[in-house]
Amino acid sequence: MSSNQLGDRVFCSINGRYGTLASLTSAPETRVFPLGENLSFEDGASIGIPYFTACRALILKAKAKKGERLLVHGASGGVGLAAVQMGRELGLHVVGTAGTDEGISLVKATGAHEVFNHRDPKYLKNLGTEKFDIILEMLANVNLDKDLTLMNPRGRTIVVGSRGPTQINPRNLMMSESSVTGVALGTSTEEEWAELAAHVVAGTESGWVKPPVHKVYSLEEASQAHHDIIHSKGAQGNLVVRVTE
Amino acid sequence: MSSNQLGDRVFCSINGRYGTLASLTSAPETRVFPLGENLSFEDGASIGIPYFTACRALILKAKAKKGERLLVHGASGGVGLAAVQMGRELGLHVVGTAGTDEGISLVKATGAHEVFNHRDPKYLKNLGTEKFDIILEMLANVNLDKDLTLMNPRGRTIVVGSRGPTQINPRNLMMSESSVTGVALGTSTEEEWAELAAHVVAGTESGWVKPPVHKVYSLEEASQAHHDIIHSKGAQGNLVVRVTE
Fold this sequence. Notes:
Number of strands of chain A: 11
CATH superfamily of the largest domain in chain A: NAD(P)-binding Rossmann-like Domain
Strand content of chain A: 15-25%
Structural class of chain A: alpha/beta
CATH topology of the largest domain in chain A: Rossmann fold
Largest interface: A-B, 30 and 30 residues
Shape of chain A: globular
Oligomer: homodimer
Radius of gyration of chain A: 18 Å
Number of domains of chain A: 2
CATH architecture of the largest domain in chain A: 3-Layer(aba) Sandwich
Order of helices and strands of chain A: EEHHEHEHEHEHEEHEHEHE
Distance between the termini of chain A: 24 Å
Protein backbone atom coordinates (compact mmCIF):
# COMPACT_ATOMS: atom_id res chain seq x y z
CA MET A 1 0.00 0.00 0.00
CA SER A 2 1.26 3.49 -0.69
CA SER A 3 -1.53 6.02 -0.08
CA ASN A 4 -2.59 4.08 3.01
CA GLN A 5 -0.13 3.66 5.91
CA LEU A 6 0.45 0.67 8.16
CA GLY A 7 -2.13 0.82 10.93
CA ASP A 8 -4.63 2.98 9.01
CA ARG A 9 -8.30 2.08 9.46
CA VAL A 10 -9.49 0.90 6.03
CA PHE A 11 -12.28 -0.94 4.24
CA CYS A 12 -12.00 -2.83 1.00
CA SER A 13 -14.13 -3.92 -1.93
CA ILE A 14 -12.97 -7.30 -3.18
CA ASN A 15 -14.64 -10.32 -4.71
CA GLY A 16 -14.79 -13.04 -2.08
CA ARG A 17 -12.47 -15.44 -3.90
CA TYR A 18 -11.45 -17.01 -0.61
CA GLY A 19 -14.56 -15.95 1.28
CA THR A 20 -14.59 -13.08 3.73
CA LEU A 21 -14.43 -14.95 7.04
CA ALA A 22 -10.76 -14.29 7.78
CA SER A 23 -8.78 -12.27 10.27
CA LEU A 24 -6.16 -11.49 7.62
CA THR A 25 -6.73 -10.78 3.94
CA SER A 26 -4.87 -9.30 1.03
CA ALA A 27 -6.32 -6.85 -1.48
CA PRO A 28 -4.92 -4.79 -4.36
CA GLU A 29 -4.13 -1.22 -3.35
CA THR A 30 -6.84 0.04 -5.72
CA ARG A 31 -9.51 -1.75 -3.71
CA VAL A 32 -8.53 -0.46 -0.26
CA PHE A 33 -10.04 2.80 1.01
CA PRO A 34 -9.81 4.89 4.17
CA LEU A 35 -12.49 4.20 6.77
CA GLY A 36 -13.52 7.49 8.39
CA GLU A 37 -13.46 7.76 12.20
CA ASN A 38 -17.25 8.03 12.23
CA LEU A 39 -17.57 4.52 10.76
CA SER A 40 -17.04 1.27 12.69
CA PHE A 41 -15.38 -1.83 11.22
CA GLU A 42 -18.87 -3.42 11.05
CA ASP A 43 -19.91 -0.43 8.94
CA GLY A 44 -16.80 -0.92 6.85
CA ALA A 45 -17.69 -4.56 6.20
CA SER A 46 -21.06 -3.35 4.85
CA ILE A 47 -19.72 -0.86 2.30
CA GLY A 48 -17.56 -2.76 -0.17
CA ILE A 49 -20.13 -4.88 -1.99
CA PRO A 50 -23.51 -3.19 -1.32
CA TYR A 51 -22.55 0.44 -2.04
CA PHE A 52 -20.28 -0.37 -4.95
CA THR A 53 -23.03 -2.54 -6.46
CA ALA A 54 -25.69 0.16 -5.98
CA CYS A 55 -23.32 2.71 -7.51
CA ARG A 56 -22.54 0.49 -10.49
CA ALA A 57 -26.26 -0.16 -11.05
CA LEU A 58 -27.47 3.44 -10.68
CA ILE A 59 -24.63 5.42 -12.23
CA LEU A 60 -22.78 3.16 -14.68
CA LYS A 61 -25.67 0.98 -15.87
CA ALA A 62 -28.87 3.06 -15.45
CA LYS A 63 -27.08 6.39 -15.98
CA ALA A 64 -29.40 7.99 -13.44
CA LYS A 65 -30.24 11.66 -13.98
CA LYS A 66 -31.38 14.09 -11.30
CA GLY A 67 -35.15 14.21 -10.95
CA GLU A 68 -35.79 10.73 -12.32
CA ARG A 69 -38.11 8.33 -10.52
CA LEU A 70 -36.40 5.26 -9.00
CA LEU A 71 -38.12 2.10 -7.75
CA VAL A 72 -35.97 -0.09 -5.52
CA HIS A 73 -37.85 -3.38 -5.74
CA GLY A 74 -36.73 -5.09 -2.54
CA ALA A 75 -35.15 -2.18 -0.71
CA SER A 76 -34.54 -3.50 2.81
CA GLY A 77 -31.39 -5.54 2.10
CA GLY A 78 -27.81 -4.29 1.96
CA VAL A 79 -27.80 -3.27 -1.72
CA GLY A 80 -31.36 -1.94 -1.55
CA LEU A 81 -30.68 0.39 1.38
CA ALA A 82 -27.42 1.57 -0.19
CA ALA A 83 -29.42 2.33 -3.36
CA VAL A 84 -31.99 4.32 -1.37
CA GLN A 85 -29.23 6.47 0.17
CA MET A 86 -27.43 6.87 -3.14
CA GLY A 87 -30.69 7.61 -4.98
CA ARG A 88 -31.42 10.47 -2.58
CA GLU A 89 -27.86 11.76 -2.95
CA LEU A 90 -28.29 11.74 -6.77
CA GLY A 91 -31.51 13.76 -6.53
CA LEU A 92 -33.87 10.98 -7.57
CA HIS A 93 -37.43 10.46 -6.36
CA VAL A 94 -36.98 7.20 -4.46
CA VAL A 95 -39.76 4.65 -4.00
CA GLY A 96 -38.95 1.43 -2.17
CA THR A 97 -40.65 -1.87 -1.45
CA ALA A 98 -40.16 -4.32 1.42
CA GLY A 99 -41.99 -7.38 2.68
CA THR A 100 -42.33 -6.75 6.43
CA ASP A 101 -43.36 -3.86 8.66
CA GLU A 102 -39.82 -3.71 10.07
CA GLY A 103 -38.36 -3.59 6.57
CA ILE A 104 -40.77 -0.84 5.52
CA SER A 105 -39.89 1.25 8.57
CA LEU A 106 -36.19 0.82 7.90
CA VAL A 107 -36.49 1.79 4.20
CA LYS A 108 -38.49 4.88 5.22
CA ALA A 109 -35.96 5.79 7.91
CA THR A 110 -33.19 5.35 5.35
CA GLY A 111 -34.72 8.10 3.24
CA ALA A 112 -37.13 6.69 0.65
CA HIS A 113 -39.86 9.15 -0.31
CA GLU A 114 -42.46 6.36 -0.36
CA VAL A 115 -42.40 2.70 0.67
CA PHE A 116 -44.87 -0.09 -0.18
CA ASN A 117 -45.27 -3.68 0.95
CA HIS A 118 -44.66 -5.95 -2.06
CA ARG A 119 -46.49 -8.78 -0.24
CA ASP A 120 -49.72 -6.76 -0.27
CA PRO A 121 -51.73 -8.18 -3.21
CA LYS A 122 -52.73 -4.61 -4.10
CA TYR A 123 -49.25 -3.10 -3.97
CA LEU A 124 -49.01 -2.51 -7.71
CA LYS A 125 -52.18 -0.44 -7.44
CA ASN A 126 -50.78 1.31 -4.36
CA LEU A 127 -47.69 2.33 -6.34
CA GLY A 128 -49.99 4.67 -8.25
CA THR A 129 -50.18 5.55 -11.94
CA GLU A 130 -46.88 7.42 -12.20
CA LYS A 131 -44.26 5.09 -13.62
CA PHE A 132 -40.50 4.80 -13.14
CA ASP A 133 -37.40 5.74 -15.10
CA ILE A 134 -35.21 3.27 -13.22
CA ILE A 135 -36.06 0.03 -11.40
CA LEU A 136 -33.44 -1.75 -9.30
CA GLU A 137 -34.66 -5.34 -9.17
CA MET A 138 -33.40 -7.58 -6.36
CA LEU A 139 -35.57 -10.63 -7.19
CA ALA A 140 -36.16 -10.71 -10.93
CA ASN A 141 -37.63 -14.21 -10.96
CA VAL A 142 -40.59 -12.88 -8.94
CA ASN A 143 -40.94 -9.28 -10.15
CA LEU A 144 -39.55 -8.84 -13.66
CA ASP A 145 -42.81 -9.26 -15.57
CA LYS A 146 -44.42 -6.57 -13.39
CA ASP A 147 -41.37 -4.31 -13.78
CA LEU A 148 -41.87 -4.28 -17.57
CA THR A 149 -45.29 -2.66 -17.02
CA LEU A 150 -43.95 -0.09 -14.53
CA MET A 151 -41.39 1.66 -16.74
CA ASN A 152 -41.64 5.08 -18.35
CA PRO A 153 -40.58 5.43 -22.00
CA ARG A 154 -36.86 4.53 -22.20
CA GLY A 155 -37.04 3.18 -18.66
CA ARG A 156 -34.20 0.96 -17.42
CA THR A 157 -34.66 -2.06 -15.18
CA ILE A 158 -31.36 -3.20 -13.68
CA VAL A 159 -31.30 -6.80 -12.46
CA VAL A 160 -29.25 -7.07 -9.27
CA GLY A 161 -30.57 -10.43 -8.14
CA SER A 162 -32.56 -13.40 -9.46
CA ARG A 163 -33.08 -16.92 -8.19
CA GLY A 164 -34.58 -18.74 -11.18
CA PRO A 165 -36.51 -18.46 -14.45
CA THR A 166 -39.64 -16.36 -14.90
CA GLN A 167 -42.25 -15.49 -17.49
CA ILE A 168 -42.33 -12.04 -19.11
CA ASN A 169 -44.14 -10.37 -22.00
CA PRO A 170 -41.41 -8.86 -24.25
CA ARG A 171 -44.03 -6.70 -25.96
CA ASN A 172 -44.03 -4.49 -22.85
CA LEU A 173 -40.47 -3.46 -23.72
CA MET A 174 -41.35 -2.43 -27.25
CA MET A 175 -43.65 0.61 -27.26
CA SER A 176 -41.78 2.17 -24.33
CA GLU A 177 -38.39 1.24 -25.81
CA SER A 178 -37.47 0.29 -22.27
CA SER A 179 -34.70 -2.12 -21.31
CA VAL A 180 -33.59 -4.80 -18.88
CA THR A 181 -29.87 -4.99 -18.07
CA GLY A 182 -27.94 -7.22 -15.69
CA VAL A 183 -25.32 -5.92 -13.28
CA ALA A 184 -22.32 -7.74 -11.79
CA LEU A 185 -19.86 -5.74 -9.72
CA GLY A 186 -17.07 -8.25 -10.40
CA THR A 187 -17.00 -7.33 -14.09
CA SER A 188 -15.82 -3.77 -13.36
CA THR A 189 -12.70 -2.58 -15.16
CA GLU A 190 -9.95 -0.84 -13.17
CA GLU A 191 -11.21 2.54 -14.43
CA GLU A 192 -14.72 1.65 -13.28
CA TRP A 193 -13.47 0.54 -9.84
CA ALA A 194 -11.81 3.92 -9.50
CA GLU A 195 -14.99 5.73 -10.51
CA LEU A 196 -17.14 3.69 -8.12
CA ALA A 197 -14.64 4.27 -5.30
CA ALA A 198 -14.64 8.02 -5.91
CA HIS A 199 -18.42 8.12 -5.42
CA VAL A 200 -18.52 5.84 -2.38
CA VAL A 201 -15.51 7.24 -0.51
CA ALA A 202 -16.86 10.77 -1.04
CA GLY A 203 -20.09 9.49 0.52
CA THR A 204 -18.29 8.15 3.58
CA GLU A 205 -16.72 11.59 3.99
CA SER A 206 -19.81 13.72 3.39
CA GLY A 207 -21.87 11.32 5.47
CA TRP A 208 -24.60 9.97 3.22
CA VAL A 209 -23.02 6.48 3.26
CA LYS A 210 -24.49 5.06 6.48
CA PRO A 211 -24.46 1.25 6.23
CA PRO A 212 -27.45 -0.25 8.01
CA VAL A 213 -26.09 -3.11 10.13
CA HIS A 214 -28.91 -5.36 11.32
CA LYS A 215 -27.01 -7.93 13.33
CA VAL A 216 -23.42 -8.77 14.25
CA TYR A 217 -22.40 -12.42 14.65
CA SER A 218 -19.26 -13.91 16.21
CA LEU A 219 -17.07 -16.15 14.05
CA GLU A 220 -18.55 -19.18 15.84
CA GLU A 221 -22.01 -18.05 14.71
CA ALA A 222 -21.01 -17.77 11.04
CA SER A 223 -23.12 -20.73 9.91
CA GLN A 224 -26.13 -19.20 11.66
CA ALA A 225 -25.50 -15.96 9.75
CA HIS A 226 -25.57 -17.86 6.46
CA HIS A 227 -28.74 -19.66 7.53
CA ASP A 228 -30.41 -16.40 8.51
CA ILE A 229 -29.68 -14.63 5.22
CA ILE A 230 -31.02 -17.52 3.10
CA HIS A 231 -34.13 -18.09 5.21
CA SER A 232 -34.80 -14.43 5.99
CA LYS A 233 -38.50 -13.55 5.99
CA GLY A 234 -37.57 -9.98 5.02
CA ALA A 235 -34.17 -8.27 5.06
CA GLN A 236 -33.40 -5.40 7.42
CA GLY A 237 -29.90 -4.38 6.40
CA ASN A 238 -26.56 -6.13 6.55
CA LEU A 239 -25.56 -9.17 8.59
CA VAL A 240 -21.94 -8.89 9.71
CA VAL A 241 -19.61 -11.55 11.11
CA ARG A 242 -17.00 -10.10 13.49
CA VAL A 243 -13.79 -12.11 13.04
CA THR A 244 -11.57 -10.68 15.81
CA GLU A 245 -12.43 -8.75 18.97
CA MET B 1 -43.01 20.22 -49.83
CA SER B 2 -40.06 22.48 -50.47
CA SER B 3 -36.94 20.39 -51.14
CA ASN B 4 -39.03 18.03 -53.25
CA GLN B 5 -40.83 19.34 -56.35
CA LEU B 6 -44.24 18.46 -57.72
CA GLY B 7 -43.83 15.31 -59.81
CA ASP B 8 -40.65 14.11 -58.10
CA ARG B 9 -40.39 10.38 -57.49
CA VAL B 10 -40.39 9.97 -53.68
CA PHE B 11 -40.83 7.44 -50.91
CA CYS B 12 -41.99 8.16 -47.38
CA SER B 13 -41.69 6.74 -43.89
CA ILE B 14 -44.91 7.31 -41.99
CA ASN B 15 -46.83 5.44 -39.33
CA GLY B 16 -49.83 3.82 -40.95
CA ARG B 17 -52.40 5.87 -39.07
CA TYR B 18 -54.87 5.48 -41.90
CA GLY B 19 -53.29 2.33 -43.34
CA THR B 20 -51.17 2.33 -46.46
CA LEU B 21 -53.63 1.03 -49.04
CA ALA B 22 -54.38 4.38 -50.70
CA SER B 23 -53.65 6.02 -54.02
CA LEU B 24 -53.22 9.41 -52.35
CA THR B 25 -51.62 10.12 -48.97
CA SER B 26 -50.23 13.08 -47.07
CA ALA B 27 -46.98 13.08 -45.13
CA PRO B 28 -44.94 15.74 -43.32
CA GLU B 29 -42.09 17.10 -45.44
CA THR B 30 -39.57 15.59 -43.01
CA ARG B 31 -40.79 12.09 -43.84
CA VAL B 32 -40.66 12.33 -47.64
CA PHE B 33 -37.43 11.40 -49.42
CA PRO B 34 -36.24 11.23 -53.03
CA LEU B 35 -36.54 7.84 -54.70
CA GLY B 36 -33.52 7.25 -56.92
CA GLU B 37 -34.09 6.30 -60.57
CA ASN B 38 -32.63 2.85 -59.88
CA LEU B 39 -35.46 2.08 -57.45
CA SER B 40 -39.05 1.17 -58.41
CA PHE B 41 -42.12 2.33 -56.52
CA GLU B 42 -42.42 -1.23 -55.16
CA ASP B 43 -38.89 -0.83 -53.82
CA GLY B 44 -39.91 2.54 -52.38
CA ALA B 45 -42.84 0.95 -50.55
CA SER B 46 -40.37 -1.45 -48.92
CA ILE B 47 -37.96 1.16 -47.56
CA GLY B 48 -39.91 3.39 -45.15
CA ILE B 49 -40.65 0.99 -42.32
CA PRO B 50 -38.13 -1.91 -42.70
CA TYR B 51 -34.95 0.13 -43.27
CA PHE B 52 -35.81 2.86 -40.79
CA THR B 53 -36.62 0.19 -38.17
CA ALA B 54 -33.37 -1.71 -38.84
CA CYS B 55 -31.46 1.57 -38.63
CA ARG B 56 -33.15 2.58 -35.38
CA ALA B 57 -32.42 -0.85 -33.89
CA LEU B 58 -28.78 -1.15 -35.01
CA ILE B 59 -27.55 2.42 -34.73
CA LEU B 60 -29.72 4.26 -32.19
CA LYS B 61 -30.54 1.36 -29.83
CA ALA B 62 -27.69 -1.18 -30.14
CA LYS B 63 -25.09 1.49 -30.98
CA ALA B 64 -23.39 -0.96 -33.33
CA LYS B 65 -19.63 -0.63 -33.70
CA LYS B 66 -17.56 -1.82 -36.65
CA GLY B 67 -16.31 -5.38 -36.22
CA GLU B 68 -19.04 -6.47 -33.81
CA ARG B 69 -20.90 -9.75 -34.32
CA LEU B 70 -24.59 -9.40 -35.22
CA LEU B 71 -27.20 -12.16 -35.12
CA VAL B 72 -30.38 -11.38 -37.03
CA HIS B 73 -32.76 -13.91 -35.49
CA GLY B 74 -35.38 -14.23 -38.22
CA ALA B 75 -33.58 -12.54 -41.10
CA SER B 76 -35.73 -13.34 -44.13
CA GLY B 77 -38.49 -10.76 -43.57
CA GLY B 78 -38.46 -7.09 -44.54
CA VAL B 79 -36.74 -5.77 -41.40
CA GLY B 80 -34.39 -8.75 -41.18
CA LEU B 81 -33.09 -8.37 -44.73
CA ALA B 82 -32.73 -4.61 -44.28
CA ALA B 83 -30.72 -5.34 -41.12
CA VAL B 84 -28.46 -7.77 -43.00
CA GLN B 85 -27.68 -5.13 -45.65
CA MET B 86 -27.21 -2.40 -43.05
CA GLY B 87 -25.09 -4.69 -40.85
CA ARG B 88 -22.73 -5.32 -43.76
CA GLU B 89 -22.61 -1.58 -44.53
CA LEU B 90 -21.68 -0.90 -40.87
CA GLY B 91 -18.83 -3.41 -41.01
CA LEU B 92 -20.42 -6.01 -38.72
CA HIS B 93 -20.00 -9.78 -38.96
CA VAL B 94 -23.57 -10.74 -39.90
CA VAL B 95 -25.12 -14.09 -39.00
CA GLY B 96 -28.75 -14.70 -39.95
CA THR B 97 -31.38 -17.33 -39.33
CA ALA B 98 -34.40 -18.33 -41.41
CA GLY B 99 -36.89 -21.17 -41.33
CA THR B 100 -36.97 -22.40 -44.95
CA ASP B 101 -34.44 -23.25 -47.65
CA GLU B 102 -35.76 -20.35 -49.74
CA GLY B 103 -35.37 -17.96 -46.80
CA ILE B 104 -31.84 -19.18 -46.11
CA SER B 105 -30.83 -18.71 -49.76
CA LEU B 106 -32.29 -15.22 -49.78
CA VAL B 107 -30.53 -14.18 -46.55
CA LYS B 108 -27.25 -15.51 -47.96
CA ALA B 109 -27.79 -13.73 -51.27
CA THR B 110 -28.54 -10.54 -49.34
CA GLY B 111 -25.07 -10.64 -47.83
CA ALA B 112 -25.06 -12.49 -44.51
CA HIS B 113 -21.69 -14.11 -43.73
CA GLU B 114 -23.43 -17.20 -42.33
CA VAL B 115 -27.04 -18.39 -42.24
CA PHE B 116 -28.64 -21.12 -40.14
CA ASN B 117 -32.06 -22.77 -40.09
CA HIS B 118 -33.70 -21.90 -36.77
CA ARG B 119 -36.10 -24.85 -37.26
CA ASP B 120 -33.19 -27.29 -37.12
CA PRO B 121 -33.24 -28.68 -33.53
CA LYS B 122 -29.44 -28.42 -33.51
CA TYR B 123 -29.23 -24.85 -34.80
CA LEU B 124 -27.95 -23.41 -31.52
CA LYS B 125 -25.07 -25.85 -31.71
CA ASN B 126 -24.55 -25.02 -35.38
CA LEU B 127 -24.19 -21.34 -34.47
CA GLY B 128 -20.88 -22.31 -32.85
CA THR B 129 -19.26 -21.17 -29.65
CA GLU B 130 -18.53 -17.59 -30.62
CA LYS B 131 -21.24 -15.36 -29.19
CA PHE B 132 -22.81 -12.12 -30.36
CA ASP B 133 -22.54 -8.45 -29.45
CA ILE B 134 -25.92 -7.61 -30.97
CA ILE B 135 -29.01 -9.74 -31.55
CA LEU B 136 -31.94 -8.38 -33.55
CA GLU B 137 -34.88 -10.47 -32.40
CA MET B 138 -37.96 -10.70 -34.63
CA LEU B 139 -39.90 -13.24 -32.53
CA ALA B 140 -38.98 -12.73 -28.89
CA ASN B 141 -41.73 -15.00 -27.55
CA VAL B 142 -39.98 -17.95 -29.20
CA ASN B 143 -36.29 -17.00 -29.02
CA LEU B 144 -35.60 -14.59 -26.16
CA ASP B 145 -34.52 -17.15 -23.57
CA LYS B 146 -31.98 -18.57 -26.03
CA ASP B 147 -30.79 -15.07 -26.95
CA LEU B 148 -29.81 -14.44 -23.32
CA THR B 149 -27.33 -17.33 -23.57
CA LEU B 150 -25.92 -16.16 -26.92
CA MET B 151 -24.66 -12.72 -25.91
CA ASN B 152 -21.10 -11.60 -25.32
CA PRO B 153 -20.34 -9.48 -22.24
CA ARG B 154 -22.34 -6.22 -22.58
CA GLY B 155 -24.27 -7.75 -25.47
CA ARG B 156 -27.50 -6.07 -26.58
CA THR B 157 -30.61 -7.90 -27.72
CA ILE B 158 -33.02 -5.59 -29.49
CA VAL B 159 -36.63 -6.80 -29.61
CA VAL B 160 -38.20 -5.89 -32.96
CA GLY B 161 -41.13 -8.31 -32.74
CA SER B 162 -42.95 -10.52 -30.24
CA ARG B 163 -46.28 -12.27 -30.30
CA GLY B 164 -46.86 -13.27 -26.68
CA PRO B 165 -45.29 -14.04 -23.30
CA THR B 166 -42.24 -16.25 -22.82
CA GLN B 167 -40.05 -17.70 -20.09
CA ILE B 168 -36.51 -16.41 -19.55
CA ASN B 169 -33.76 -16.83 -16.96
CA PRO B 170 -32.77 -13.29 -15.86
CA ARG B 171 -29.57 -14.64 -14.33
CA ASN B 172 -28.20 -14.99 -17.88
CA LEU B 173 -28.23 -11.18 -18.11
CA MET B 174 -26.23 -10.72 -14.92
CA MET B 175 -22.69 -12.06 -15.31
CA SER B 176 -22.47 -10.77 -18.88
CA GLU B 177 -24.11 -7.45 -17.94
CA SER B 178 -26.03 -7.86 -21.18
CA SER B 179 -29.35 -6.20 -21.97
CA VAL B 180 -32.71 -6.55 -23.70
CA THR B 181 -34.24 -3.41 -25.20
CA GLY B 182 -37.43 -2.86 -27.15
CA VAL B 183 -37.57 -0.81 -30.32
CA ALA B 184 -40.52 1.05 -31.85
CA LEU B 185 -39.90 3.24 -34.89
CA GLY B 186 -42.98 5.35 -34.12
CA THR B 187 -41.40 6.73 -30.95
CA SER B 188 -38.62 8.51 -32.91
CA THR B 189 -38.16 12.21 -32.23
CA GLU B 190 -37.85 14.63 -35.16
CA GLU B 191 -34.05 14.70 -34.68
CA GLU B 192 -33.98 10.91 -34.76
CA TRP B 193 -36.13 10.78 -37.93
CA ALA B 194 -33.62 13.08 -39.56
CA GLU B 195 -30.71 10.90 -38.46
CA LEU B 196 -32.40 7.71 -39.66
CA ALA B 197 -33.27 9.35 -42.99
CA ALA B 198 -29.68 10.48 -43.48
CA HIS B 199 -28.48 6.89 -43.18
CA VAL B 200 -31.18 5.33 -45.35
CA VAL B 201 -31.25 7.94 -48.13
CA ALA B 202 -27.45 7.75 -48.36
CA GLY B 203 -27.93 3.99 -48.75
CA THR B 204 -30.37 4.43 -51.64
CA GLU B 205 -27.80 6.65 -53.32
CA SER B 206 -24.71 4.51 -52.72
CA GLY B 207 -26.70 1.38 -53.54
CA TRP B 208 -26.60 -0.83 -50.46
CA VAL B 209 -30.32 -0.27 -49.86
CA LYS B 210 -31.85 -2.90 -52.15
CA PRO B 211 -35.30 -3.81 -50.83
CA PRO B 212 -36.10 -7.46 -51.45
CA VAL B 213 -39.63 -7.55 -52.87
CA HIS B 214 -41.05 -11.07 -52.75
CA LYS B 215 -44.45 -10.56 -54.29
CA VAL B 216 -46.58 -7.73 -55.65
CA TYR B 217 -50.35 -7.87 -55.20
CA SER B 218 -53.07 -5.81 -56.87
CA LEU B 219 -55.38 -3.74 -54.68
CA GLU B 220 -58.09 -6.38 -55.18
CA GLU B 221 -55.68 -8.97 -53.72
CA ALA B 222 -54.97 -6.92 -50.57
CA SER B 223 -56.77 -9.30 -48.21
CA GLN B 224 -54.75 -12.18 -49.69
CA ALA B 225 -51.56 -10.21 -48.94
CA HIS B 226 -52.62 -9.82 -45.29
CA HIS B 227 -53.48 -13.52 -45.12
CA ASP B 228 -50.13 -14.49 -46.62
CA ILE B 229 -48.05 -12.42 -44.20
CA ILE B 230 -49.83 -13.78 -41.13
CA HIS B 231 -49.81 -17.40 -42.27
CA SER B 232 -46.37 -17.30 -43.90
CA LYS B 233 -44.37 -20.49 -43.40
CA GLY B 234 -41.19 -18.44 -43.70
CA ALA B 235 -40.74 -14.89 -44.95
CA GLN B 236 -38.82 -14.11 -48.14
CA GLY B 237 -38.80 -10.34 -48.21
CA ASN B 238 -41.52 -7.73 -48.56
CA LEU B 239 -45.06 -8.20 -49.81
CA VAL B 240 -46.19 -5.11 -51.68
CA VAL B 241 -49.69 -4.04 -52.74
CA ARG B 242 -49.71 -1.96 -55.91
CA VAL B 243 -52.49 0.60 -55.60
CA THR B 244 -52.49 2.22 -59.07
CA GLU B 245 -51.09 1.01 -62.37
